Amino acid sequence: MTEVERKTFFHDGALYNENRRKFPAEELWKHADEHVAFSLDGTRILAHGKNFEETWAAMKAAGLDPEQAVWDHLPPRDEDTIL
């Protein structure tokens, strides 16, 4: 593989958004104020951590490709927002 060649993957943003909206709030609250890596289809949290680097390392440790995830930071519990 040359330097310009990259792994390609398909990310269906509509499917991700649909599944992410259905994600159980009680599961999201467990990761309040954490960085999370969601599966590309939005159905699972693949890894989480207190910062991006920790979450990236957790993905690598689990044998997962960090580039094949949707990254987000969940708000703290006391922030007035909707998960």
Q: What this model shows, in words?
A:
The chain has 83 residues and is an alpha+beta fold. The protein has one domain. The chain is 30% helix and 16% strand. The protein has helices at 13-22, 25-29, 52-61, and strands at residues 35-38, 45-49, 70-73. Strands 2-1-3 form a three-stranded antiparallel beta sheet, with helices on one face. Strand 1 and strand 2 (45-49) form a beta hairpin. The chain starts with 12 loop residues before the first helix and ends in a 10-residue tail after the last strand.
Q: What is the count of β-strands?
A: 3
* Total domain units: 1
In angstroms, what is the radius of gyration? 14 Å
Oligomer: single chain
- What helical percentage do the residues reach? 25-40%
Give the structure's gist in a few sentences:
The chain has one domain. The mean pLDDT is 89.
Please specify the SSE layout and strand pairing.
Elements: H1 13-22, H2 25-29, E1 35-38, E2 45-49, H3 52-61, E3 70-73
Antiparallel strand pairs: 1-2, 1-3
Supply database-style keywords.
83 residues; alpha+beta
